Amino acid sequence: MGTVVIKVIIPAFNEENAVGKVIGDIPKDQVSEVIVVNNASTDRTEKTARALGATVLNEPEKGYGNACLKGIRYLANHETKPDVVVFLDADYSDYPEELPMLVEPIASGTHDLVIGSRTLGERESGSMTIPQVFGNWLATTLLKLLYGANFTDLGPFRAIRYSSLIQLNMQDKTFGWTVEMQLKAIKKHLKYMEVPVSYRVRTGKSKISGTVRGTIMAGYKILWTIFKYL
Fold first, then answer.
1. Could you give the CA distance from residue 69 to residue 128 in angstroms, rounded to a whole number?
2. Which of 11, 72, 132, 207 is such that its CA lies 20 to 30 A from the CA of 62?
């Protein structure tokens, strides 16, 4: 991919058994820095990530968005800015080796945002719960009806041009992060696309979809965010 500078941000909350696998599968010859944001973990997530050469930032305030915002602030405070930022979950449900597929449309200059779509890709049985599948369908349908968007997924595995990311002025601190990025991309007229990605059963139990409360809270926040920006 030439001289394109790619940095990866991985929000991580108690993922000591998975984060090492994620870091290990990232194509090191294409990524200049892997940033793990340790989001109030009480296990060995931080030590595991550091041992594998990742930059580790500590964000004590829980929240997926909080962790992502911490990573963005870190990038903004560095003199050398990346060309592309990739967001990747720490639970090893995504396939980090598919990263080049997401980055290529941005590196070639045709797009600003690329979402890894689990809906279009190959999903391992049980990798997404029924509420997750329905929630994704509902959110993307609303994005189409209300914003004219063409998304099939709110997948966490995504790549975005750094300058576009800054332009979006991301704000959400919890579960509305992914949908906020997508609807703001529409409003800012960014060029976006989806690529099919593979998805497997995560390592360990989900803190969101693994609980009834987490599922309801996430769903509520996603819907609230969609209507907030109308």
1. 25
2. 132
In 3-state terms, the chain is what percent helix, strand and coil (to 5)?
40, 15, 45
- pLDDT above 70 covers a percentage of the chain that reads 97
CB 82 within 8 A of CB 106: no
Both tokens of 93, joined, read 């449900």
Tokens at residue 21, please?
């696998």
- In DSSP notation, 86-116 reads EE--SSS-S-GGGHHHHHHHHHTTS-SEEEE
Question: What would the mean pLDDT of 89-116 be, rounded to a whole number?
Answer: 98
Nearest to 41 by CA among 11, 71, 69, 20: 11
User: DSSP letter at 229?
Assistant: T
The arithmetic mean of pLDDT across residues 12-40, rounded, is 97
Q: Does pTM top 0.90 for this prediction?
A: yes
* pLDDT attached to residue 193: 98
Residue 97's domain comprises: 6-228
Which burial class, exposed, middle or buried, applies to 29 when counting CB atoms under 10 A from its CB (0-12, 13-18, 19+)? exposed
- Split into its structural domains, the chain has a count of 1
- The whole-number average pLDDT for the span 58-85 is 97
The CATH number for 125's domain is 3.90.550.10
Does residue 46 lie within any of the structural domains?
yes
